[in-house]
Amino acid sequence: MLVKGYGNLEITNMLNIQPGTVSTYKKRIFTKLKVENIPDLVKIHLEFKS
Fold first, then answer.
1. Separation of first and last alpha carbons in the chain
2. Residue 50: per-residue pLDDT
3. Can you tell me whether residue 38 is helix, strand or coil?
4. Cβ–Cβ < 8 Å for 2, 38
């Protein structure tokens, strides 16, 4: 959802979870993949997709 451009609030509403949960998992994803921002996450997504 992050790679598709959805924001934290949109993700929160779609999954019916707390905003803090989205933030926590977003931080965990960034840490695990060693990225600092969404464009870097998109690059990784595109690399795996090819």
1. 19
2. 78
3. helix
4. yes
| Contacts of 21 by beta carbon, 8 Å cutoff, 6+ apart | 12
Total number of domains constituting the chain = 1
Residue 13 lies in a domain: yes
**Residues 27-40: tens digit of each pLDDT:** 999 999 999 999 99
Global pTM reads: 0.82
How far is 24 from 35, CA to CA, in rounded Å? 15
Residue with tokens 């464009």: 39
Q: What is the domain extent for residue 39?
A: 8-49
In a domain, 17, yes or no: yes
Does residue 14 fall inside a structural domain? yes
